[in-house]
Design goal:
Five copies of one chain form a homopentamer.
Chain A (H helix, E strand, L loop, with lengths): L1 E8 L2 E5 L5 H9 L3 E8 L3 H11 L3 H9 L5 E5 L2 E12 L2 E12 L2 E7 L6 H9 L1 H4 L3 H14 L1 H17 L7 H29 L15 H64 L14 H22 L4
Parallel strand pairs in A: 3-7
Antiparallel strand pairs in A: 1-2, 1-3, 4-5, 5-6, 6-7
Keywords (chains A, B, C, D, E): Cell membrane, Membrane, Transmembrane, Transmembrane helix, Transport
Subcellular location (chains A, B, C, D, E): Cell membrane
Organism (chains A, B, C, D, E): Roseateles subflavus
């Protein structure tokens, strides 16, 4: 589905037009100072076909853009650059992954978004407000789109970090272990999902700055380096959360064991105290005929006193040992 | 055993013929625009011998193709390319590994499949329907075979992912831990088996695109890059499942410990309650002569009431502490 | 906010002046043997604007310097070098991270510090005391600042190491496990925070010595190598603490389990001893008419003796088995 | 100690002779189409000295060959190649490590075996049966020796894999955990021993194929690549066993915990049942005068019935909860 | 502090002399076939100053040599090579780390040892006994020192390996777990300390053989490769111990759990047996009037017999189940 399409000369918008109007499109493409920027979403192969023929898009790239479920990548097909990025968004308290594919040639840029509600209208507006930057051509648009995609990762990684911090608050709280392990596990899953968007994109971005850069992007390498740097920060944050998560899971297991051990101690202590009481009572409950103390007037209170004293002594000792 | 054999000129099938008919074969090979595509399965060294002589196949490659149990690889022998890939298939609810070896020269391609029911008839059909692609020659056939092999990994990795999700459903279910650890272990084993097919193939594919590419494959690097990209996706999915599996195993252990701890608490609580009852009963079961309460008319109901009250109080406190 | 600003000719300070006085600044910049060193802190984009125009600072670099929350990096923009480093400091017994950004050109160096109380006055003083070194120009100032930043990591890593050693003292102390796991977890978090400052900086420093070095820094590579070496030492120490921490967490879990096991044994032992006493007492508390021993004159003492003997025997055996 | 020695011209054996007979040796060495193959075992520095002088063997290589306890390696000394490989063998149900060192020059190959019963007589025989291969010279002999060494790793890794499978059979068997952890630990130790032979050899083999290859081996790189490929397969199998072992050890720990938890539950259940019985019996064992039920004719059977009913009810509930 | 100093011409000692005698030193340095070898220990900056001036030692290198606490490294300063190595020694049953710094120029070598009792007198003696090797100049001395340092790592790693083997003897011994975890932890700490000496040195040695080698060392690369090889062996041994240690710690935790589980079972068993006895005794201790069996002449022995029989049956069943 077409979102919008416009032609830009020297960074300034010339006109909005329908890219399916081949005459207008042809006129713009024949002007060497002009490039067209076409934004599509949830596109079928049929919708892309006219562009494929006109811009010589490689069939494999078109397949990738329409089929979806690609991993983030940057590929060169001749003098064209084809990029796929993941759009990560919160949907119903879980991370949902969409995609945006960008075809970028000397005088055109086509973006195809799919499976996500995130849009790039703001990117176009901002670009149009800065003609001195936009006049660098399609590769600047590619940068602007990448930058927008990466900027949307920041709040997500922040959210994951603050979730971790929240769990950390209760990690040493007795009795919260079951809840904690569930939340840690869920957090790990989300983190891995985000990581699968970030890690290959970081790898791919290294093709656009430093080393051998596609000719198309040679004037904007500093911008791509900046995106790569932001992404590296996100990646470092993810790795850090991941590492801390692993430690938190171990700490949680330790806490379960410590908690269990405390209960075992308490159980041992009370069981001991009552076992003593029961044993003493059992002794004086025996039916021997010759048990002189049973006949003493103060036998019963003395027995009770003895039992209470022994139990009290045990209680005090267990208390001191930290078992109670 | 021969499956089929045909000669192709400019991407169009010329004729099916027996590769053991040397006259016909020689005629096709002498035509520079023609290549032959021979498909074999479960081949002995004897069956390969005529081709080895005719196409100058290296003895080490022939050995690998007939002996089986190779790891996935791509090797150059002079201007020939020799590739081995793993075919992964579900047999009796377990992963079974077969192999396909492909000899690829300037005017021939020989595929030798072994130890698997998966076949490539569909690949030949699809190639024949697209002569403009098939005219790129034997390296396109090599690509088509690789693509078919890799495409068959997708449902398997999807299956493993959904198995993991299924286990995740019950990972925090009390009492399911024994079952879960068994299933996690089994899943891990399958995953490792798939990984042994995927990881070396990913590595080997890097020889066919980017960097120094065999001359034979120089016109189809973009296709091999696409296969590599699919494989990288599968590999990332495997690594992700693997990482999540490790966390799941830890979470499972935590759950066992949490479950055990809950039982210990309950045990402690009930043991405490009954120990109190027994101790009180033991006290009044003593045989002292001077125990005035034993003579009171309402002594027995009062004692029972006291015991029940104390036990009830304990029960309430344990309940509140979450032990019961 | 401006901290200070001075011009240096051949390593000797010429004068302190306000960098916003464009005439003086222009005069110094026009002298090829002179460079200016401007120190700022917590700067807004507006404060940097005059310098951005005058020194042709790249907008992305200026953005990074004012926005903060960058990861440590070294970037070349044309013949300028832009570096960001993390300042790590103890604030309220926790690690606080600030930043310092340095713009370094052929005849100027601008440092922008933010979010930290750590300052670099000492660096300027020391540089001014060694004109023969300072005459190497702005890249020596860059080195001096880096060296100061890295030198401040040493006491922090030492502190973390000694915290670990302190925990190690009590790691095998029974009953200290809960405290230990908390401290180990806290230490791990601090360590990861320091690591996020050190690891990318180590990586970035490799751009300033060995391999292709920015022209600006070509005369001071040996100094940058020295900083890199210090940093590598810190990094190795961090990795070592990290590795030991992981082992300590495992050892702590083992200790909890060992402690729990000891308690279980003790519980088993005492429970066994009293269960025996209670069982014996219960036997002689039965109301059978024909129990001859109940009538024996020395029946009671004998029974008591038997109970004590059996219990004592059990006690002795449990003692010998190490359960008590 | 000398095993055997022969000269080969164009791949065909010329004669067996004593390498200490310098005249014969000299005659063979002066013929450019001839090379000599000397096999030694458990050699002292003295025995090697004549060859060291004659073939210009480097003193460090000679030291390595006689001292033993080297790690697998391939080193170039001028135009000579020196290789050390580990011989792994089962001795008394444990893995024993021996070594073979090979000096390889343009017209000679000397193999020195030490600390192992494994011999290479079969290698020489097989080489002599294939003169068209052996005529490739000393580097083919080096290949043949390496191939023989690596071929002997296969049954060992197979054995370790089947040991793992055997343990896996009983990993979820209750009560086998102690035995399993012992066997897993033992298996891990053996695996690490094999790995120390395989991993450095894999690394070293990359020097003999692909990249810069010693001149001596340039005609046989395809053979060395084949050995490397076999070794990579062994290495992958080792890593796979290693990874599965780690999971098995975790699964074993989970099983211990699950087993323990089951016992705790059963203990809790039976303790609860008998505590109830004892408490009830204790109640009616009290000596209050006014306990009307004691006087009822059917009091005793009713009490017994009540006790049995309550215990039965508990038993049934515990049964249903899976505790018994 | 000066240890000794001598001049060598063509590998033969010319004379011992004081390096502070500048006339003699100057005479030797002016002879192109002569080099001087100065050995110092625990040196202050002042002691090094004359050499710093004379041999143009870089201030950063001098700082490193006098300050200590460097990580192992090899650095080039112009045509000089500066190396720092760790000396590892047993002091009071713990590993103590000292350092040796070596300045190596075309006609001099200065070694500065600090913080260790290990000395290099034997190295000088051995070198002087082999003039044909020593005539290779200062880089051979550097090699000889490195070789001596590395040779001293071997007994340490052997000691750590045999400590591990000793612990392994008792790893499955019931009751030794507390001791084992302590020893494993201690071993891990020592291992990490050794590793911090070995790992960076291995990395640094790669600069002295293979790839771009400092001119000074170009004639002795084969010797440095040999040292690197020894070090790689030590490193592999360390990694192997480390890996086994991790498994041993896990196995130890399993053993604690297994041990605990065994105790729990035994506790459960005995508690069950005595609970049955107590319950039966409690039944017959009830005070119902109509309990016919109490009046039977053989009631008591029958009751005793029943109790013993039931307990015996339980004992036998628990025994068979492996709980006792």
């Amino acid at each position: 589905m077409l979102i919008n399409c416009a032609a830009y000369r020297s960074g300034v918008k010339v006109e909005d037009f329908s890219p399916y109007d081949e005459a207008t499109l042809g006129r713009h493409l024949s002007d060497p100072d002009t490039f067209v920027w076409i934004a599509l979403r949830d596109t079928t192969a049929e919708e892309l076909q006219p562009f494929q023929r006109l811009f010589h898009l490689h069939e494999l790239a078109v397949e990738d853009a329409t089929h979806g479920h690609q991993r983030p990548k940057v590929e060169e097909y001749g003098d064209l650059v084809f990029a796929v990025m993941h759009l990560v968004d919160w949907v119903d308290a879980d991370l949902s992954i969409g995609e945006v594919a960008v075809f970028c040639g000397p005088n055109f840029v086509i973006s195809v978004r799919s499976g996500s509600r995130l849009h790039f209208l703001g990117v176009r507006e901002r670009c149009e407000r800065e003609p001195h930057l936009l006049m660098q051509g399609p590769s600047f648009v590619l940068y602007a789109l990448m930058d927008a995609v990466v900027d949307r990762y920041f709040p997500i990684v922040d959210q994951l970090e603050s979730e971790l911090e929240e769990i950390e608050q209760s990690i040493f709280t007795p009795g919260a272990q079951l809840d904690n392990i569930k939340r840690l596990y869920e957090l790990k899953r989300r983190l891995m999902r985000l990581r699968r968007a970030v890690a290959p994109m970081l790898e791919m971005l290294s093709k656009l700055h430093g080393g051998r850069v596609p000719l198309l992007c040679s004037r904007t390498t500093e911008y791509f380096r900046d995106v790569a740097d932001h992404l590296a920060r996100i990646h470092a944050a993810i790795e850090s959360v991941r590492d801390t998560l692993a430690t938190a899971i171990q700490a949680n297991l330790s806490m379960v064991a410590i908690d269990d051990s405390a209960v075992t101690k308490r159980l041992a202590a009370w069981a001991g105290i009552f076992a003593v009481a029961t044993a003493f009572a059992g002794i004086w409950g025996m039916n021997f005929e010759q048990m002189p103390e049973l006949k003493w007037a103060w036998g019963y209170p003395a027995a009770l006193g003895l039992i209470v004293s022994v139990c009290g002594l045990l209680w005090w000792r267990f208390r001191r040992a930290g078992w109670l």
